[in-house]
Automatic annotation (TrEMBL):
Named cofactor requirement(s): K(+)
Keyword Metal-binding carried by entry: yes
Record organism: Kutzneria viridogrisea
This protein's name: pyruvate kinase
Keyword Secreted: no
Domain spans labelled Pyruvate kinase barrel: 131-219, 322-558
NCBIfam families: PRK14725.1
Family: Belongs to the pyruvate kinase family.
PANTHER family (alphabetical): PYRUVATE KINASE (PTHR11817)
Signal peptide: none
């Protein structure tokens, strides 16, 4: 058992070692610190201080400090040196020893938090009353032609509108931006436009199209009895019209044939299997609704009555069925791959993946629904042994994401499309998001393009979605701090696939800590209230996730049929949680939930 003297000596020694580590870290990172924007220098220095103390295991020291009623350094992110020096001074005082003066007066507690608050407001705009975190919404394509959508989203709490440049085109982006700005002007509010550069897309190539056929299937109960007939929309082939119910399948037929049909008429058709089916017609404007009591397959060219045939139908999207143990070939050839027994081959949109993946490296496909390992490589393809799929196999379509977390791909985060889009983005956006960041050179390239285009206005958000970016996060952040208006997005979808779902909670915590130390705002993204946005009802788990998101400066929702309800729910959750938490700190407001029995 150590004496009281030994206890104090050990505490003073441990704290002195940490203060020395701060100075050593500044020296070690001096070239990075020298390049940051002058207004960011205090924050950059605090970032390397936090890096320094987190190189050590502080858990034993924390317990000893907490036993004395002192700060355990667990909330030191925004002001590392100030916290450390205050604790050191208290320990010296408690042990009866005079405290030496520090070599440089550190930022005072609270100053770092103010810097973060100010930078978040500068980059992301003001917060809504009663909230600390802003709400960002990814706009659907319909936002280009529906001005009222932006007004409704703003009324429910949206403060940033995000446009994904992987979809639509410059004309649609301009209309979306105009609608949002007009809605904000009408509401006398502020809504920032965020545009996400598409980045290099590593996806599966197309599969050969399937037959041009539709299946009409009635609804049956558990005894196989029809409870609702199948319905389809017979539309004039010459000018196709949307069905009155979006769930109906459209079947084009000649307009003259449609006009000759009578309301309530029954048309007998021989479907693709040679089965006779009776379609009952009901007039609806210039089209007709056809109902049928038995499953029916109609293809392009299927004969109807009076020498009429079904018009051109879209091809059925085909998929590969993959099971654990199968070998999938990922090829440079992105021509539509044939689908058939034993043909497990699909293209890869990024040839560099084929050239640089190594045998033994993992491959994750379709958000990790399918996983495998490279077992062979040729100049033209990778052979991937599937190690994980659904219990009955998983179906793989074209255009699905491919992640190679251990493969070093020599591609720029800025694709040729991004470079072409950038002038338009700078004309429209308040903030540009950089996808597929892996290291500091990706940030430098974007900044170089912004300088070349003469822009010093737009804010920049770096999407942390790769394993490489996470592993190099201090360097990425210090490079980002060469500009005054920067932030980070935790893109949890790809990050979970790349690093493993079991590590996601740990990774997002570490990113939040490091960004708070750098006083940089964070956007919490991917699958926030996704079930609510898509299906109209949230899961219990995603409500808890939404509550955790309050620790970021902004929370992003993805589009969906129920996006307006999702915005309202998120707004409600964030307002409630802002009264209980700020970052790591529990806020001890008075609680009125519990009362003694009356």
């Amino acid at each position: 058992m150590c004496s009281d003297t030994d206890k104090w000596v050990r505490l003073r020694s441990d704290l002195e070692a940490l203060t020395v580590a701060l100075a050593d870290a500044e020296e070690q990172w001096s070239s990075w610190l020298a390049a940051v924007e002058p207004g960011q220098l205090g924050s950059a220095r605090n970032l390397v201080h936090y890096w320094a103390i987190r190189q050590r295991d502080l858990r034993d020291l924390q317990l000893r400090l907490a036993a004395l009623g002192l700060s355990s350094l667990g909330r030191s992110e925004p002001h590392v040196a100030a916290t450390l020096y205050a604790v050191e001074r208290a320990v010296y005082a408690l042990s009866g020893m005079p405290w030496r003066s520090c070599r440089r007066a550190p930022a005072q507690p609270g100053e770092g938090s103010r810097w973060l608050t100010d930078r978040a407001a500068d980059l992301l705009g003001p917060v809504a009353p009663g909230r600390r975190a802003r709400v960002m919404v990814t706009l659907p394509s319909s936002a280009a032609d529906d001005p009222d959508l932006a007004r409704r989203l703003l009324a429910r709490g949206m403060r940033l509108a995000r446009i994904n440049c992987a979809h639509d085109d410059a004309d649609a982006w301009r209309r979306m931006t105009h609608n949002v700005r007009e809605a904000a002007r009408s509401a006398s509010g502020d809504c920032r436009i965020v545009m996400d550069l598409a980045g290099p897309k590593l996806r599966t190539g197309p599969l050969a199209p399937g037959p041009k056929v539709v299946r009409l299937r009635p609804t049956r109960d558990l005894l196989g009895r029809v409870t609702a007939p199948a319905r389809c929309w017979l539309t004039p082939a010459e000018r196709r019209m949307a069905p009155p119910d979006p769930r109906m399948t459209s079947v084009p037929v000649p307009m003259a044939w449609l006009l000759a049909r009578r309301d309530g008429e029954t048309v007998t058709v021989r479907d693709t299997r040679g089965a006779n089916r009776a379609l009952v017609l009901a007039r609806c404007g210039d089209g007709m609704i056809a109902t049928v009591e038995r499953t029916t397959y109609l293809a392009t060219g299927t004969p109807l009555a009076d020498s009429c045939t079904v018009g051109e139908l879209p091809a059925v999207e085909q998929r590969l069925l993959l099971r654990a143990g199968d070998v999938l070939e990922l090829t440079k050839d992105c021509a539509p791959a044939p689908v058939g027994p034993g043909q497990l081959r699909i293209g890869c949109t990024l040839p560099e993946a084929i050239e640089h993946a190594e045998v033994g490296q993992p491959v994750h496909i379709d958000d990790g629904k399918i996983s495998g390992r490279v077992i062979a490589r040729t100049p033209e393809l990778l052979k991937v042994r599937i190690t994980r799929a659904g219990p009955n196999g998983s179906r793989l379509a074209g255009g699905r994401g491919v992640n190679l977390p251990e493969t070093r791909l020599p591609v720029s985060a800025l694709s040729s499309k991004d470079l072409a889009d950038l002038p338009t983005v700078l004309d429209l956006a308040d903030v540009v998001e950089l996808s597929f960041v892996r290291d500091a050179t990706d940030v430098e390239q974007l900044f170089g393009e912004l300088d070349r285009l003469g822009d010093d206005r737009v804010g920049v958000v770096l999407k942390i979605e790769t394993k490489q970016a996470f592993e190099r996060l201090p360097q990425v952040l210090l490079t980002a701090m060469r500009r005054p208006r920067v932030g980070v997005m935790i893109a949890r979808g790809d990050l979970a696939v790349e690093c493993g779902y079991e590590r996601l909670a740990e990774l997002q915590e570490e990113i939040l800590w490091l960004c708070e130390a750098a006083h940089l705002p964070v956007i919490w993204a991917t699958q926030v209230l996704e079930q609510l946005a898509r299906r109209g009802r949230p899961s219990r788990a995603e409500i808890s996730d939404a509550a955790m998101s309050e620790r970021a400066e902004c929370v992003m929702l993805n589009k969906g049929p129920y996006i307006e309800e999702a915005v309202s729910t998120l707004d409600n959750v964030l307002r409630r949680m802002s009264r209980h938490h700020y970052k790591k700190n529990a806020l001890l407001r008075s609680l009125h939930s519990w009362r003694p029995d009356q």
